[in-house]
Amino acid sequence: MQTRAYIGTSGFYYEHWRGVLYPEDLPKNRWFEYFATRFDTVEMNSTFYHLPKAKTITHWDEKSPEGFLFAFKAHRGITHYKKLADTREELLRFLHLLKPIKHKLAAVLFQLPPSLHRNDELLGDFLAQLPHGGGWRFVVEFRHESWYDEAVYVILRHHGVALCWHDYGRKSVPDVSTAEFAYLRLHGPSGHYRGSYDDATLQHWAERLQKELNHNRPVFVYFNNDMEGNAVRDARRLRELLANEE
């Protein structure tokens, strides 16, 4: 994997992207293939709601070019139902499904619910189950502010897991690096998947990301403000701004 910025969107299958990204006459069964010609990475949110079928994984692999990378959001059974506790069976099942496409893996994202408050022992025990090396990369997105503490960052660093930077609920995540890569999710200026970012905000992120690249850490960025096609336009604009930082 190259030390560069991979900028894409959270998901790709949105009806309201017709005319913004997808040509009006393009059949839906060709949307992903078209997406992969315009972006070099995507964050798959669908895997949070249901486990992917083997044939779906094969399809994504076959329809994406070499160099295209996938981030997968871990199933909610791990993060929201069991809240990281006693999840070994669910975790192994999920990771096993991803093995055929691991050569195109950006990272696996564990998005924790706002109701899950800081628990260092729980986090450490969970992360200890994750495989190390072999192309696996993992990232945790905290939604409760109690997690933002140096002791938690030490746990993440120990396991080589990235702290997800994000702006959900218009929150500001500390500018802390805990892994050999950076991972950013932008949920919209409203904090809830809507609105388009202004150039000043995108320039701020471009400068922040460039610092990671200067330290030889690849960065992954996913826009989740899909309404009205804003994610597409903002991803393109950040890509331009970041190119100007080089």
TrEMBL record:
This is DUF72 domain-containing protein. Pfam families: DUF72. PANTHER family: DUF72 DOMAIN-CONTAINING PROTEIN (PTHR30348:SF4), UNCHARACTERIZED PROTEIN YECE (PTHR30348). It comes from Nitratifractor salsuginis (strain DSM 16511 / JCM 12458 / E9I37-1).
